[in-house]
Structure formats: structure tokens, C-alpha cells
Amino acid sequence: MVCSGNICRSPLAEQVLRARLADLGSIGFSSAGTFAGEGERMPEQAAALSVRFGGDPSAHSARYLTEQMVAGADLVLAMARSHRREIVELVPRKVGVTFTLREFARLSADLSEAELAETAARGGSLRGGLAEVVALVASRKGQSGVPVSAEEDDVIDPYRRSDDTYERSAAQLVPAAEEVARVLRAAVRGVGA
């Protein structure tokens, strides 16, 4: 998960996904920021949202996004289009596995769990199955023919803003993270991991 400072959106997404898929233990999650201050903690409002949605913010420490992090990831989820662009500029070969969080959720929303599991099974292993599922979701880009605005793909940045803005940000982020969790759970089931 990638955002700007790695203290609000990306750690919340990481922690929600970790909580939703904790029983699997077979998928790792991490987050970083495009201009993070190393070691910074989550603001009180972001930490409270994490706890409310089942996450654990206690160990979070902001990290700066590196080429090595992106290169080692099988799926990279940005909180905004600007982050997605920076990720792809950093490691161009990751363009096919880099989405905004809300974009990935939108593109996968009408894929059934059976279809996701069947697709993952073709991968033969957990990593291969996840790659198959990510490729399936990526293949759906641009199919609607209707342009999507940044407001539909981006998660609003709540940093140093009102509590209402934190709530609006979470209202965009959490359902998208839950959809990603659904997709990943179906993929894991498909490969029997």
C-alpha cells in the first residue's frame, strides 16, 4: 500500500487487509510513502480508525517507498493516481500490477469468488495464482468505455484535516480494502494454500 506520508491512508489499508486476512497467514502486507518521514507514527485519528476497523496501529512506523519494495511486490495498491504514477515511474515493469486501491476494487467487484478461485488455480502456486488473479483484474482496465475521474479512484487525504475528512477518507478506503480482501481470499482458496 502506498500513499504520501505513510501515516494515514496506506497504513490503514495495510492494517485493514492484515486484519481481514489474518487467518490465512500466507500473504504479506506492507506500506510505504512517496515522501514519508521515516519512523513517524499514525495521527490519533488514523490510529483510531484502524482500531475501529480491526487493525492494530501500535507497531506502525512510516517508511519511504523504495525501488526494492516495489520490485518485490506482487500487487501494489496506491491511495491516489498520483502515487500510482510515481510507483510506475520508479519501477516501470510493475505497471501491470499497480492500481489505486479503489480502482482495483472497482475492477474486481463483479468477479465471482468461483471465477477468482478458478483463475488462481491456473497459477499452480500461491504466487502464481495471485499473479493470475491480478492479471485478470488488470485485463478489465478500460473495458467500461466510460472515463473514471480521480475522485472515483483516489482516497481523499485526511492528513491535518477535520475529523469529518478522516471519516470520509475511511468511507472510501475501507470498503475498497474489504473488496481486495475478498479477491485475495478467493485466490488463496483457489490454490489451496
Task: Kindly summarize this structure in a few lines.
This protein is mainly α and 193 residues long.
Question: Could you characterize what this model shows?
Answer:
With 193 residues, the chain is mostly helical. It has one domain (2-191): Rossmann fold (3-Layer(aba) Sandwich). Helix content is 51%, strand content 5%. It is built from 9 helices and 4 strands. The protein has a two-stranded parallel ribbon with strand order 1-2. Strands 3-4 form a two-stranded parallel sheet. Helix 4 (81-90) links the parallel strand 3 (76-78) and strand 4. Helix 1 (9-20) packs parallel to helix 2 and helix 6 (113-121) packs across helix 7. The longest helix is centred in the last third of the chain and has 29 residues, at 163-191. The radius of gyration is 16 Å and the shape is globular. The relative contact order is 0.19.
Put simply, the count of helices is 9
- Major beta-sheet overview: 2 strands, parallel
Radius of gyration of CA atoms, rounded to a whole number: 16 Å
Question: Regarding CATH, which class?
Answer: Alpha Beta
Give the rounded overall mean pLDDT: 92
How many domains, as an integer? Answer: 1
Main sheet strand line-up: 1-2
CATH homologous superfamily - what is it?
Response regulator
Task: Tell me the series of helices and strands, N- to C-terminal.
Answer: EHEHHEHEHHHHH
Using the coordinates shown, work out and report the CATH topology: Rossmann fold
Q: What is the total tally of β strands?
A: 4
Q: Helix amount, in percent?
A: 40-55%
What is the CA–CA distance across the termini?
Answer: 23 Å
Shape: globular
Could you name the ranges where pLDDT drops below 50 across 5 or more consecutive residues? none
Give the second-level CATH assignment, the architecture: 3-Layer(aba) Sandwich
User: Helix- and strand-based class?
Assistant: mainly alpha
Sheet-strand content, in percent, reads: 5-15%
